Amino acid sequence: MVDPAPDLTALTPVITDAEFAQFQGLLRDITGIHLTEFKKTLLVARLASRLRARQVRSFAEYYKLIRSPQEAGELQAAINHLTTNETYFFREPEHFQILKDFIAGLRPVPMPFRVWSAAASSGEEAYSIAMVLADVLGGSRWEVVGTDISTRVLDRARTGLYPLERNGGIPSDYLHRFCLKGQGAQDGMLLIGRQLRERVQFAHANLNGPLPDLGRFDVIFLRNILIYFQNDQKRKVVEAVLPKLHPHGLLIVGHSENLLGISDRVKLVRPTVYRVAGTL
After folding, report:
1. Which of 269, 248, 246 is nearest to 259 (CA)?
2. What is the pTM of this model?
């Protein structure tokens, strides 16, 4: 009697310390993100579905698979699963008031006024910025660019479609002016209005590698991403981002981040807000 083939979908993958170190190094080399030893369980949980999808029996086998030049798509899938995508509308809301005040203080406002959401995730930050710009600048020339290393979240961002319960951070005035309530097949969903979606572009970018030609920006939101990097990677990212910032512009990081000891090319304007050193 022949034993039945094992059901790979039912297997619970186990990762050794040596295998975890391989993935740890790979993620650091590609994205700059440092996975601590405490994230081993998280890595297993996030990649288990990819092992099942590709019908491989071990993390060692999966690592060998994604290192193959023929498996660039699977490598990107692994990165999509391993990168953190937590975000919501108007997160750290004082930064959006800072954006408003900055524009109000510009005489004249440069056109087109451009803002980069450098770790855009599924788009909530980029669309929050767009709502502020639409409110303050109206029909003037402005645009928002959102980038992320995860192609999966970028696909979601481009739709501008979100579960209705995620609208909690959106000011009620903006909610009525810039958002639509889904109907029919989109019942229970929130859709960003077309007038905003047309002003927001999303592109794939790895902050740890060569950046695409995005042009220059008046404000760059580099928020809640540097916390995942060690200091050498933080320096590399900031050095890559600064040439994209106009001399008069603002660089905004998250409340749990600062650039002290990371770059002498910026000066602190207020907590989490920086300008290029040597500018007014």
Report:
1. 269
2. 0.90
What the block records as the tokens of 19 is: 């295998």
Instruction: Please check the confidence at residue 204 and state whether its pLDDT lies above 90.
Output: yes
CA angle 221, 227, 230 (to 5 degrees): 120
* Of 28, 46, 91, 265, catalytic: 46
Catalytically annotated residue among 50, 114, 148, 199: 148
Active site residue 264: no
β-strand 245-253 against 266-270: which pairing, if any?
unpaired
Q: Taking Cα atoms as reference points, which of 185, 180, 181, 183 lies closest to residue 195?
A: 180
pLDDT of residue 8: 45
pLDDT greater than 80 at residue 151: yes
Give the CB-side neighbour count of residue 44, counting CA atoms within 13 A. 16
**Lookup: tokens for 189:** 């969903």
Q: How many CB atoms lie under 10 A from the CB of residue 264? A: 8
Task: Give the rounded distance of the alpha carbon of 217 from its chain centre.
Answer: 17
Q: State the burial class of residue 110 (Cβ atoms within 10 Å of its Cβ: 0-12, 13-18, 19+).
A: middle
Amino acid (one-letter) located at 235: R
pLDDT recorded at residue 254: 97
